[in-house]
Design a protein that fits this description.
The protein is mainly α. It has 9 helices and 2 strands, in the order ββααααααααα. The model has no long low-confidence stretch (mean pLDDT 91).
Length: 285
């Protein structure tokens, strides 16, 4: 970062700069990189699943460790939760893919229904002051509760897409915050939750569209070859978990990363599709 200034972040949020030189980098500076690794995990494993090679099992183990270990030792809790959740979904989808995929579509829609009540319940239970939770989680609970209150002010049309930074309330005394709160009550730059941010910025009509779109994507997993459906379900789970806890829904890098996932899944899935009558099976290398 010192040799190549272009590599410096735009904001000194996770780095320490002294006399125009980066002197310290927090591990959280790499959270976006970890999220990308998490999103690429299941498409990569599916690609190896389609590989016809005597070293396929070894390569699969090495690839999994190469991505899972950095995720596990990182400071990005959302990717870690996504890794655990997707590892649980994978074997279930192997056993009964149709039930699991339908369950994921229902869970996606329920996320929009339950997000506001759950935010209020978490705050009422004083989880924002629970010492056993990471500081970032306690901060999110404060942001979620405050944002959920603002949703009720414009529930039908919301405040407008990507308008949270412009509408962020700045108190007269910036340092004012209740005792025991890790941050002041605010909406922040975004809600750190796709389901809640949809309510706040798009209102009920936008929420309906987002719920239908996500459920439709989940159900399309059943159109993949049977050998690829479990990987698709695990990948959808990873995306949903990260979207529920981590980034803002309009961040360009995240939109691009998620948008590429169907391509990354479809390319190896094509190698696993049984050939139609009169066709030869596609070659995998």
């Amino acid at each position: 970062m010192n040799i190549f200034p272009a590599f410096r972040p735009e904001r000194a949020k996770h780095v320490t700069i002294h006399h125009d030189r980066v002197t310290k980098i927090n591990l959280s500076e790499f959270n976006q990189d970890i999220a990308i690794l998490a999103l690429l995990l299941w498409p990569g494993l599916l690609a190896l699943r389609a590989l016809e090679s005597p070293r396929r099992k070894l390569l699969t183990v090495l690839f999994f460790l190469a991505l899972a270990v950095p995720i596990a030792i990182s400071e990005h809790d959302s990717s870690q939760v996504g890794l655990i959740a997707s590892l649980l979904i994978l074997p279930l989808a192997w056993v009964n893919p149709r039930a699991v995929v339908r369950g994921l579509a229902i869970a996606w829609c329920l996320g929009f229904v339950l997000v506001i009540p759950l935010d209020f319940l978490a705050f009422k239970a004083e989880l924002h002051q629970a010492k056993w939770l990471p500081k970032s989680a306690r901060a999110r609970i404060i942001i979620w509760e405050y944002t959920a209150e603002r949703v009720l002010e414009k529930p039908f049309l919301g405040i407008g897409a990507d308008s949270t930074p412009a509408m962020m309330v700045k108190p007269k005394n910036p340092s004012e915050r209740p005792k025991g709160f890790v941050i002041r009550r605010t909406t922040g730059q975004h809600a750190h939750n796709l389901f809640l941010q949809s309510w706040y910025e798009l209102g009920v009509f936008g929420v309906i569209l987002a719920a239908i779109a996500g459920a439709a994507v989940a159900l399309r997993i059943l159109l993949l070859p049977a050998a690829a459906q479990a990987y698709g379900a695990a990948c959808f789970t990873m995306v949903a978990v990260i979207a529920a806890f981590a980034w803002g829904m309009w961040q360009i890098w995240l939109i691009c990363a998620v948008g590429l996932l169907p391509l990354y899944l479809l390319m190896p899935a094509a190698l696993l599709r049984p050939p139609a009558d009169g066709e030869s099976a596609p070659a995998s290398r």
